[in-house]
Amino acid sequence: MQPAHAARTARRYEVIGDEAAFRALQHEWDVLWSRAHGHYYQSFSYCWLAWRHVSKPHGRRLKCIVCREGGQLVMIWPLETCRRALWTYLVPLGPEGGDYTSVLVQDGEAAPALIAGAWDTARRRCGADFIHLQYVRETLELYTLVSRERSVLFAEAHNAFAARLRGRGERNGWDDYCRTLGTLFGKRPGGFAKRLSREGKVAVRVVDPAEESETASIVEWMLNCKRSWSDRVGKRSAWLDSPEYECFLAKLIHSPDVPSMARLIVVTLNEAPVAAIIVSVGNPWASAIFAGYDPYYGRCCPGLVAVEACVKWAFDNGFDLDFGVGNERFKAYWSRGEASTAWTVRTVNSLWGLLAIRGWRLARYLGARVKGLREAGAASPEAARVFTRDGKRATRVS
């Protein structure tokens, strides 16, 4: 057996910033992703499409950390850097949506050391002033490493929900499974579809990934619905207005460059879409990526019909289903209340970054002091003299 110190000596980390070298990883990456049961956002297909259609057009720089042992690829952590004012941020590769952050590595005794090496490489070799990681699961080794940093700028916790469905279809059918559930907003599975059917003919289908034109049209419609919703609730995100992000979502479903990573499930009313959801192909975890519904039919909850169809699709295909972060009641319902915690964490990673933080804090302190002095001055009778003109006479206003 090879001694542990010899294995560490043979372990080599590299930061890949060249697009051609990144592309050349595809075969090895696919093998590792399948072996490690990676999530969709860890796949080569997702990362390649994210780089080509989102990150590169926005001027970001590729920083993909890989590790080899004896020449074999054993770990991948796809990252990128972006400039914000005078500072460089290291972030996960891809759109800043709702995806988790984690390192692709096969479970085993070596995994913690490989992840620790990836974190050390990110800190020392990627040239970042700040490292910003969104939705790192609390149970991961990566979270343990990041939370131990002395220079954590902030950390925010989020609830995350996932439905464990694998194997249930082998023991009983969908109807039997639904009978084990309670109610959501007073209705059992199928209830919201019945309510919607009072408005007309309801149908649910999975769009053929090869139908590029229809896929693009429905994705555009979904984003328009999402923009309308975000305006109503006051939660506008920059990626909602990004044509690159719209293209990326469609390419996840069908692209000539890489295998399809997602399916588009559409709910129609009288043959017109009223809700749709994009779900990743499972490995074996599937993920609900993006959804939209027509607010005109909001009282009929077409979005919940789409979610139920998504759960059934995962159930029928033998996948578990991750709903991502958020406290929406439907997530807790389908997950049977089983929640986990994911953290968004930002660390300071350079002296330049530390100076920026101290400068920002000083500016806030001085701003608060000036505001306090102004408010104190306004409250003083002697300092609050205001005059108006009444012909040639000046009159003090008390």
TrEMBL record:
InterPro entries: Acyl_CoA_acyltransferase (IPR016181), BioF2-like_GNAT_dom (IPR038740)
Domain of life where this protein originates: Bacteria
Domain (BioF2-like acetyltransferase) ranges: 193-331
Record's protein name: CelD/BcsL family acetyltransferase involved in cellulose biosynthesis
The species this protein was found in: Paraburkholderia terricola
Lineage, opening ranks: Bacteria, Pseudomonadati, Pseudomonadota, Betaproteobacteria, Burkholderiales
